Amino acid sequence: MSQRRAVTKTTALRYARADRAAKKTILDELCALTHWHRDHTRKALRQALVLKQVTPRSPRPPLYGEPVIEALRFIWAVQGTPCGRLLAAALPDLVPRLRRLEELQLDDGTAALLLKIAPATIDRRLAADRVKLALPSEAW
Alpha helices of the chain — where are they, by DSSP H? Predict the structure, then answer.
């Protein structure tokens, strides 16, 4: 599909400047090349010259706020800095236990979000902290 668009864009200017007889041959060539119907080819050639206004999408609001990430950092340090996959598997057991022992001061909403967090999200959110713990390359 991207090849068809590229060919259509390159042909559109030639089509717009051509007379009626040349437009017929250009349409025949493009129909044979792209296997489009003539009406669709004609419309695609007209649309190829129209500039489209692209509006950027608004970013999605973050689901996990700072209290969740702070609790995640604490649990990650307590567990000995495991990877996100192992930490996510341990969270359903650790969060209620740490709350019961009053090591974590969390409300129910934050605890529910902490139990719902995905392993890939854990790895992304703890990447900066993991870099801080890495040894410098000159030390080897």
Answer: 2-17, 20-34, 38-48, 66-78, 84-100, 108-116, 119-125, 127-133
Q: How far apart are CA 85 and CA 91, in angstroms?
A: 10
Q: How far apart are CA 14 and CA 16, in angstroms?
A: 6
Report d(CA 26, CA 41) in Å as an integer: 10
What value does the CA radius of gyration of the chain take, rounded to a whole number of Å? 29
Q: What whole-number distance in Å separates Cα of residue 115 and Cα of residue 96? A: 10
Is residue 121 pLDDT above 90, yes or no?
yes
Q: Which residues contact 64 (CB under 8 A, 6 or more apart)?
A: 72, 113, 117, 121, 125
User: In the chain, what are the domain boundaries?
Assistant: 2-48, 66-139
Task: Output the CA–CA distances (angstroms, integers) from residue 19 to 14, 26, 29, 34, 89, in the order listed.
Answer: 10, 10, 15, 22, 69
- What's the whole-number mean pLDDT along residues 67-81? 94
What is the structure's pLDDT at 6?
85
